[in-house]
Amino acid sequence: MNILIGTILIWGAAFWAVRHLHRTAPEARPELYRRAGETFLFMLPRLAVGLIGAGFLAALLPEAFVQRWLSAQSGLSGILLATGFGVLTPGGPFVAFAIGASALKAGAGAGALVAYVTSWSLVSMVRTLSYEVPLMGRRFTLLRVLISLPAPILLGLFASLAQ
Amino acid sequence: MTDDPRPRRRLFDSGFYFVLAIALASGTGVLVTHGWDTFREILLSDLGLAALLMPKIAAGVLLATALALVLPKDKVLHHVGPESGIRGLAIAATAGAVIPGGPAVTFPLTAGLMTAGADLAAGVAMVTGWILLGLNRTIVWELTFLPADLVLLRVLLSLPVPIVLGLALRAAVRHRARRRAS
Hints:
Order of helices and strands of chain A: HHHHHHHHH
Number of strands of chain B: 0
Low-confidence stretches of chain B: none
Number of domains of chain B: 2
Number of domains of chain A: 1
Largest sheet of chain B: none
Helix content of chain B: over 70%
Oligomer: heterodimer
Radius of gyration of chain B: 20 Å
Largest sheet of chain A: none
Shape of chain B: globular
Order of helices and strands of chain B: HHHHHHHHH
Distance between the termini of chain A: 39 Å
Largest interface: A-B, 76 and 81 residues
Number of helices of chain B: 9
C-alpha cells in the first residue's frame, strides 16, 4: 500500500515537471527521454541485485544477536560495537528502531542506542548498496559514507554524557 | 539547453560488480547456513520487491531528469551552489528533512538538484538531512518504538550534522584544489 501511494505521488510530480518542461522548453523533450531512459537502464540491474543482496544480508544477521550484544556492552566499546551493528542492520523504515527498543529494555545505554540508530541511518550498508550506489554513483556514496563515519561514534559519546 | 554534465557510464562497471559480489557472497552464506528453501524464498521475494519498485523508480528518474532541465540554473547555483555557504547547506538539509518519501524519491531529487548546480556538499547535506532528521520517519516510526526523551536527544544531537558534514566536504574540496594548484 505504501509503495502504491508513493508511486502515485512521484508520478504526479514527474508529470508536473515534464509538462512544465514541455511548456517552457519543448525542444528539450527528446533529450529528457534519452537521459531518463539511459539512467533507468543503468539502475535497473544494480537495484535488482542490490535488493537481493540486501535480503540475503538481512537473513544472516539475526535480530536477537544484535539485541543481546547491544545491551551487554557499555562505554566506548559499546558505542563502537553499536556503530558496527548499525552498518550491518538491514533497511526498511523501522527495523533498527524495533531492535533498539528491545535492546533498551534489555539494558542498553543511551550512548549505544543513539550510536546504533545514527549509524544505521547514515551508513546502513543495505540502503547504500541497493539505492545510493545505483542512484548517486560510487564517488558520491564513498565520500558521503567516509565523512559520515565519525558521526555515530561522536553522537553516541555525547548521548552517554547527556544521560 | 545545457550540455549533459554527467560522466559517460558503462552499463557494467566496478560499482555493479561490487554490488554483485556482495549479493553472491551473502547468497552463498544463506545457502550454507539456512539451506535451499530459505535461499529461494528470499530470492523470489526480493525479485518481487524489485519489480514492485520499478514503476516508482522510473517516475523518480523521470522527475529528477526533468527537474535538472527545468530548474533555473542561476537560482539553484545561488541557493545551494558551491558558494552558498552555511545557508545553502541549511536549505539543502531542511529540504531533505521535510520532503516526504524514501530512497526512491530523495536520491533522484538530490541527483537532479546536483545536475542543476547544487554542489557535492549540498547534495550530502540534503541526503543527511533526510536520513537523520526526516520528519516523516521520526514521527511515524521512531516515536512508536523509542521513548520520546531519547528521540529528542538524538534529534537535537543530529541537528548540526548535515551542515558539519557539508562544511567538511567543502573544506576538503578546497584543500585538494589548493594542493593541485601549487
